[in-house]
């Protein structure tokens, strides 16, 4: 059985490499992650690094990827720790994700 599980159409959770991936035109865009437990015992996920190959930039892939992974975290009731600057900026601009972010009001 594969370690890859489909989350939403093109986005997969590559658990072996701890990253969410989108495969496009034989290239991979991804978001690295790590699970954690908050001081109050809640499960959380830290989004560490967003990568989109230069040849795929400007197509909205990073934004799509981040939206899907934030929606997935919300469904799984995971607190979000956006140490990746892109993810933090995305949350800054999309208020619906701020309540779940440890940097925007939720306690770590």
List the helices and strands and how they pair.
Elements: E1 4-8, E2 11-14, E3 19-24, E4 27-37, E5 43-51, H1 61-75, E6 79-82, H2 85-93
Parallel strand pairs: 5-6
Antiparallel strand pairs: 1-2, 2-3, 3-4, 4-5
Task: Describe the structure using short key phrases.
108 residues, alpha+beta, Aminopeptidase, six-stranded mixed beta sheet
Q: What does this protein look like?
A:
This protein is α+β, with helices and mostly antiparallel strands and 108 residues long. It has a single domain (4-100), classed as 3-Layer(aba) Sandwich (Aminopeptidase), CATH 3.40.630.30. The protein is built from 2 helices and 6 strands; from the N terminus they run E-E-E-E-E-H-E-H. It has helices at residues 61-75, 85-93, and strands spanning 4-8, 11-14, 19-24, 27-37, 43-51, 79-82. It has a 6-stranded mixed β-sheet with strand order 1-2-3-4-5-6. Strand 1 and strand 2 (11-14) form a beta hairpin. The longest helix has 15 residues, at 61-75. The N and C termini lie far apart (34 Å).
The top-level CATH class is: Alpha Beta
Mean residue pLDDT: 86
What structural category do the secondary elements indicate? alpha+beta
What is the radius of gyration? 13 Å
Helical fraction equals 10-25%
Percent of residues in beta strands? 35-45%
Number of beta-strand segments:
6
Order of helices and strands: EEEEEHEH
Low-confidence stretches: 1-8
Provide the number of structural domains: 1
CATH superfamily: Gcn5-related N-acetyltransferase (GNAT)
- According to CATH, the fold-level topology is Aminopeptidase
Count of discrete alpha- or pi-helical segments spanning 4 or more residues: 2
Per CATH, the architecture is: 3-Layer(aba) Sandwich
How many strands, which pairing sense, and closed or not: the largest β-sheet?
6 strands, mixed
**Which sequence of strands runs across the widest sheet?**
1-2-3-4-5-6
